[in-house]
Amino acid sequence: MAKRLSKLRWLASWSLLLLMAAPGSAQPPTPSTAAAPVAASAASPKPMAAAPNANDERVAQLVAEGNAAVEAGKFEDAVAKYTEAQSLKANYDVAGNLGAVEMELHRYRDAAQHLWDSLRDYPPTGSDDAKLRTQQLLARARAEVAAVKLKLNVAAAEIRIDGRYAGRSPHADPFFVEPGSHVVEALHPDYENARTERTFEKGSESDVDFVMTPRRRDGTGGAALPWWPGLLVAGVGAVGVAAGGGLFAAAKAKGSNARDSAAKAGGCPSGSPAPACDGVDATLSSADGLMRGSWIAFGAGSALLAGGVVFAVVAATRRAQPPQGAISISPVVGAQGSGVAVGGSFF
């Protein structure tokens, strides 16, 4: 119990030390200084430049509640309060407090990210002691995770790690991941997607370099055209041509029969009352209809056949082109040594 209380006192005092690192009150006081009486006493007594707005007051309240949760040993509550405060207004000392609590909860990846953010934004006027403590905590967190720096030859590419959005290029800060296998991707509408799957060691630092290639513009959003729809359309066209031929043959047969009947009757002018001419007009009319249908079927079938063949040939030609993708070249530095990993993705 005594050891636990000692740890809580240390964390609370560390938190307050960070809070005292805020800039002087020549600027509006940071949320953390407004939330901690000890920190406020360390500030200059000069008048404030502007009153805090409603958002600042809410942030100050959340930080105060987070500090109280730390002192009570309720680290999960503290993380929730600090996280909400950070989402409302990013602040280096709140990020440092959040990272420190996450270290207590053994959430090393999140702790490394927040401690890194705190040091990146640390002001020149901040406390040297608090900065040193943050650096020490970050070193401990980084020993438990892997750091990945992604370099791309394309700006504004979406970066994903294990399918989750992580940021956009250019991204100077490292990404921190748990040791193990991870999928790193880069996506851009004008370039082929880049993807690599790598295993990152505990405590390692790795560079992943993506060389993205321009996306092919072929009317399908860049993907290669499939050839089978062309063959399907060509097959339908062939059936149409065959149907047109069948209708043409039937029309010719009916017309021939009608003419033979008329010849045997000595001629059957239109509307003739002769019994031998019965049905000749109807047969000729049917033959004309079949002939018109044959030409329609033949024309449509021919067009579909030709279009399908052309589509299939073009698609097959594009599929035969060398695939485009991205190559990743990744220096690796870890506890077991160093080297270079080369990978690629092709679509």
Key descriptive features of the protein:
19% strand, Immunoglobulin-like, alpha+beta, Serine Threonine Protein Phosphatase 5, Tetratricopeptide repeat, 4-stranded antiparallel sheet, 347 residues, single chain, 9 strands, 10 helices, 5-stranded mixed sheet
In short:
The chain is 51% helix and 19% strand.
The profile of the biggest β sheet is:
5 strands, mixed
Write down the CATH class of the largest domain: Mainly Alpha
- Spans with pLDDT under 50 lasting ≥5 residues? 1-10, 12-51, 320-325
Proportion of residues in β-strands? 15-25%
Radius of gyration: 39 Å
SSE succession: HHHHHHHHEEEEEEEHHEE
Count of folded domains: 3
End-to-end CA span: 59 Å
Shape: rod-shaped
Provide the spatial order of strands within the biggest beta sheet.
4-1-7-8-9
- The multimeric state of the shown protein is single chain
Helix percentage range? 40-55%
Can you tell me the CATH topology of the largest domain?
Serine Threonine Protein Phosphatase 5, Tetratricopeptide repeat
> How many DSSP H or I helices?
10
How many strands in all?
Answer: 9
CATH-defined architecture of the largest domain: Alpha Horseshoe
Mean pLDDT comes to 77
Structural class label: alpha+beta
Describe the structure.
The protein is of the alpha+beta class and 347 residues long. It folds into 3 domains: 2-142, Alpha Horseshoe (Serine Threonine Protein Phosphatase 5, Tetratricopeptide repeat); 146-216 and 326-346, Carboxypeptidase-like, regulatory domain (Immunoglobulin-like), CATH 2.60.40; 228-319. It contains 10 helices and 9 strands. The protein has helices at 2-19, 31-35, 37-41, 54-71, 75-88, 92-104, 108-120, 128-142, 228-264, 280-319; strands at residues 146-152, 158-161, 164-168, 175-177, 180-188, 191-200, 205-212, 325-334, 337-346. It has a 5-stranded mixed sheet. The radius of gyration is 39 Å and the shape is rod-shaped. Residues 1-10, 12-51 and 320-325 have low confidence and may be disordered.
